[in-house]
Structure formats: structure tokens, C-alpha cells
Amino acid sequence: MSSPNAPAELAAHVTGPVFDGADPRSATETAGFNLAVTHRPAVVVGATRSADVAAAVRYAAEARLPVAVQATGHGAVRPADGAVFVSTARMQGVHVDPRRRIARVQPGVRWRAVIDAAAPHGLAPLSGSSSGVGVVGYTLGGGVGHLARRHGFAADHVRAVDLVTADGEHSTVTAESDPELFWAIRGGKGNFGIVTALEFDLVPVPRFFGGSLLFGADDAAHVLHSFAAWAPTLPESATTSVALLRLPDLPSVPEPLRGRFTLALRFAYCGSAKDAEQLLAPMRSVARPLMGAVGPMRYRDVDRIHMDPTEPMPGVHDGGLLRAFSAEVVDALLGAAGPDVDVPLVMAEVRLLGGALGRPADVPNAVAGREGAYSLFAVAPAPPPLAHIAPEVTRSVLAALSPWTTGTTLLNFLGHAPTPEDVGSAWPTATLDRLRRVKGRLDPVNLFSTGHAIAPAALAGAR
């Protein structure tokens, strides 16, 4: 099926739908989780197979149009206006090899499908806080989840990437086939082509303990200062974060939290419930929570820890990395986003990093963020009345904590329509220069210039 105005030569080579960007159906095809980003592409391709992706890329190169790709739209950061927009949402294949502890997925797959396929074998992927997020974008941007301090970034465990590059050719990229591209794509995200399949390790999780405790505004400062002293004492088998939340006054929000400032303490542990309770005990005694539960759980129920939104919403986010989370930093965070500040902010989160996240991968890659002790992440609502101020709101939180930041960030936490220069700030200079050289070899005309895009070395100075 194709739109009457869609390019006939492209539609003839694609099994999925092809729409002209002006076709009303293209809005449905390009809609993503973040409703603050609206795409107005020239052409939309609903890919169902690798050949569809390759045809779309070849068409874009011949027409000298940029290429955009989307599976779920969780990571949308800027409009793909005038682009050839490739939706991979229909490509839903998942295969788990329990003997080799490996999963192979197509690009439209969300973590929920992998978690459910791996669980019967006592295995789990290195997924994040929400199982509704797409596997490919999350992983190739780094990927920090509840098993990360023990096992590292999700990108560290990629075995192979099936990729359509700017020349429209399809190849399988591994450490042996193209070491430099394999280094770059694991951390460089969508700069080098469109992924049509991803193969990665699964890890055994025989016992898992997790949940969250939610505290009221009066206890926020005490809980945060206690967290700052407690978090660095945790072993690598544990992960934790705190989030300053301003939840809306809506029926979908539990009554004790509705329309109130809340501080959420999240905790996860791979091991026995006895050991987990001993680790968590200092924070359980700090204050009485409004609600929450932490205890033994199945990894397939991991969404209960962060309780991330499941329905699309308009929002703007921004992130950075902290060198430490000292009493000074706690006070600065409270001054920027605490209960006494009138600020239109959904969340300001501090997440403990370190452990395996701070060590090089067994097969080195370009993942950003290993130098951070904590991540800082801010989210502001961006419906039309607030859309123009939302970026300033999130930036203000990062600015307040800038004396303690590294100047870099986790790529997946870099938001609000970044320019190539903004994206480049995620990495140290030497890593960025190497990424640009690989980009110049694979995509010298910057065909893949939407999303978290960097410019090739030859073009970087002109931008």
C-alpha cells in the first residue's frame, strides 16, 4: 500500500506502506512516545524487512534527502523535517538462544518482548527502567539499567549488528568484520546506518530484589543527604537512584502522591533477600515513606521499580554526569528542584553509576559516560503552554549543579533537539574525533543527520 503521491520508484521496492509526507496517514506512522516532537518528513516508509530499509536509504541518497529512523519514539529529540522517515516498528522478530545466552532481535522490538522470551530460561537482558523502550536505540546509545553496575552498559554486550549503511548496502558488523565500525556503532547510536537486527548477551538472574520507597516533601532533605552517604557503600550487585517528583493531580496517580512533591528512592539487587535487606536497612530507617514496596521480585516485573509512564506524553529532558554526590551537591539540587521551589518539573533524578559502568568493555566501544560517578537527569512537561520554557527548566537544573559535573553525559539522556555540537559534548574530545573519522568513512555526506547526529570530520568545522 502506498500513498498516491508517494514516489512510485520507491514504493515498487518496498513491501511495507510508503506515504508522501503530506498524506494524513504519515502523522500516525511517525507518531512516537514523546509527543513534544512532531515530524514532517518528505516520505514515510513502514519497513517490514531489511530490503525495505535498504531501498529507502538508496532513495534518500539519490534524492539528497536526510534519513530518519524510529521504532518507538522514546528517544526523539528533534523533528525529522524533510527527511525520508523509516519506521521499523513492524519488524518484531525475537529469538533467544538459551544455550549461548544470546538474543537476536529486529529493530522494532521493545524490551518487554525480550524479557518475556528470556525469563523462562532464567535469563535477562540488560534492559532499562521501562520495558516499553525500544531495544536498538537504548542499546546503541549505551544503556544503563538495573543490572548495569554488575554487568556494564548494554552496548558492552552487543555481539553483532546487521546494518544498512549510507550506500544502501547491508552487512553484518562484528569485532572481526570491521573493528572500527563495531567500536563506533556501540555508543555512536544512529550515526552510521540503520540497524535491521541486533545480537547481544543475556545474563543469568536467579534471584532479584527491588522496588521503591516514596517520601513526602518534609523528609526530602534528610533522605537525600542520607542517600548521598549510603549509595557509595553499595556493592556492584546493587543499583539505586533518587528522583524528585512532581506528579500531576490526576486519577491515574495514587492518592497519597497526587499533586504533591514526592521523593522516590529506587533500589535493585541481584542476590538474596537477606543480603538485600541488610544493604537497604540504613535507608529504611531514615524516614517513614508515604507508600512503596521493596522486596523479592521476578525480573520480568522490573517496571515496578521506576514506574515510568506507559502512555505517550510531551516532554523535554536533559542530562549530565556528576563527579560526586556530596552534601554540597544535595543542597544545590534541593535549591534547584526541591519542594520549596516553584518549578514546572516532572522529575530530577540522580542515579548511582560506577562499578562495571566505570570500566572499559571487554571489546572496547564508544559508549559515553564511564567517567561519571552519578548521572543527573531532568524532565519537564512540554504541552503547548509550556513547550517554549521546558528546555530552560531542565537546563536550569543542570546549570545549578554544573560545578560538580564532568561536562559530558550519557548519550541517551541528552535531549531537547541537540545540534551536532551538543551531541558531540557527550564524549571526550579524543573519542569524538575518532567517531567523526568513522562517520566520514561510512557517511561522508551526513545522510544520517537526524536524532543524536554528529557531523563527519570533514563537515564538523562548518557546523
What oligomeric arrangement do these chains adopt?
A: single chain
What structural category arises from helix and sheet content?
alpha+beta
Mean pLDDT, nearest integer? Answer: 94
Strand percentage lies at 15-25%
What is the CA-atom radius of gyration, in angstroms? 22 Å
Name its key features.
463 residues; 5-stranded antiparallel beta sheet; alpha+beta; globular
Please explain how this structure is put together.
This protein has 463 residues and is α+β, with helices and mostly antiparallel strands. It is built from 15 helices and 18 strands. It has helices at 8-11, 25-30, 50-63, 111-118, 135-140, 148-151, 179-188, 220-230, 273-284, 303-306, 327-337, 390-400, 420-424, 429-442, 457-460, and strands at residues 18-20, 43-46, 67-70, 84-87, 94-97, 102-105, 123-124, 158-164, 170-173, 194-201, 203-204, 209-216, 238-246, 261-269, 291-296, 315-322, 347-352, 374-381. The chain has a 7-stranded antiparallel sheet. The two termini are 39 Å apart. 54% of the residues are buried.
